[in-house]
Amino acid sequence: MNTSFWKAGHRPTLLAAFLYFDLAFMVWVMLGPLGVQIARDLGLTHAQKGMMVATPVLAGAILRIFMGILVDHLKPKMAGAIGQVVVIASLFCAWYFGIDSYEQTLLLGIFLGVAGASFAVALPLASRWYPPEHQGTALGIAGAGNSGTALAALIAPSLAMAFGWGNVFGLALIPLVLVFAFYLVAARDARECPPPKALPEYLKVLRDRDAWWFMFFYAVTFGGFVGLASSLTIYFNIQYGLDAKTAGFFTAACVFAGSLVRPIGGNVADRIGGIKSLSVMYVLAAIFLAIASVGLPAAWMALVAFVGAMLALGMGNGAVFQLVPQRFRKEIGVMTGLVGMAGGLGGFYLASSLGYAKQITGSYQIGFLIFAGLALLALTGLTAVKTRWRTTWGAAHLTAARI
C-alpha cells in the first residue's frame, strides 16, 4: 500500500467507520447463523427460513436511501449515532421480551435493517477525508466491516447452543455499546461536507444512467456477498447435514474470505483501474457459483467453491466503490445510499430465492445459476460502458485515479 495513503485523511475516523460497520453488519445478518435453531423451535418451512434471513437484507436495502439522505442533512457522524441507538434498542427488546413466532422474527428483521443501512454512513464518513487517488483503499478498509457477517456466523451458533438463541441478542449488546462509545469519541466529520439539498434534488441523480449502472453492478457483487452470508449456514445444514455450529464455521470461512479481500479489491482497483478489476471478478464469481450450483458431493468441496465466489464478490465490492466516488463525488452520500440499496436488494433476491427454489424444486441449483447469469450480464454491461467512462469523467486529464 502506498505510504502516502497513511499521511492523508483521518485515521481515527477511518477506524471508527470500520468498527461501526463491522458490528452493524454482525447484527444485520444475525438471523442467518441463528436460523437453524430458530427454524427448529418455531417450526419454519424452507420458504419461511429464506424469508426470515432475507427480511433484514431487504429492510437494510430500503433504509439505505433514507440513511443516505440523513447523512447529507445531519452529516455522517450524527446519522450513524442515530442508527446505532435504534439497533441497540431493538436488540434489547428482542432479548428482554423474547421472540416467539415467525412474524416476530420478521419484525425484528425490519429493525435489524437499520444496521444494514450503516453502509450509507460508514462509507461517506471515511470517503470525505481522502483524495481521489486513495478512494478505493479508504473505502476498502471501511467496507471491510463486511467481516462482521463472518463474526456472526462464527460465534452466534455456538452462543446459541450454550445460552439459547434468544440470549444471543442480549450478548450482542456488549460489543455494540463499546463500539458506540468509541465512535462518539473518535469519529469526526470531514471539513468538506456538501451542503444539504432539498428532497427532490436527490432524485435528480437517478436521471443519470451511470447511477443505474452502478446500482446494478453492486446489486450483483454485494448482493451475492450478503445473500450468501445470510443463507449459507442454513444451506450447509440442509444440503450436507452439518450441525448448526459446524455450518456456522463453514459460513464464517466463506464470509471472512469475501470480507478481508475488500480492501485488497479497492487497492487493486486503485492500481489497475476499477473497470479491469471488476470485469475479472464477475467472470470468477459466475464460474464458482455455477460450480456450487451442481450440489457437490462433499461439504468441503462446496466450501472451496463458495470461498472462491466470495473472494471474487468481495474484491468486486471494493472495485465498485473505487469507481463511484470518482463519478459522483459531490453526491457521494445519496449515491452510497442508492448503490447500497441496490446491493441489499440483490442480497434479498438471492437469500429469498434460494429458500423458494428449495421448497418448489427440491434443489438450490436454479437460485445459484440465475445469480451466476446476473454476474455475466453485469460483465456485459460493464463492457458496454467502459469506453465512454474512460473518455469522459474517467479521462486521464480529469482525474488522477485509474478508471
Automatic annotation (TrEMBL):
Major facilitator superfamily (MFS) profile domain span: 12-390
Asked if the keyword Membrane belongs to this entry, the reply reads yes
Kindly list the residue ranges recorded as spanning the membrane.
Answer: 12-31, 51-71, 78-99, 105-126, 138-163, 169-190, 211-235, 247-265, 277-294, 300-320, 332-352, 364-385
Kindly give the InterPro entries that the UniProt entry links to this protein: MFS, MFS_dom, MFS_trans_sf, NO3_transporter
A single GO BP term for this record reads:
nitrate assimilation
UniProt xrefs under Pfam families: MFS_1 (PF07690)
Protein name from the UniProt record: Nitrate transporter
Q: Quote a single Gene Ontology cellular component term.
A: membrane
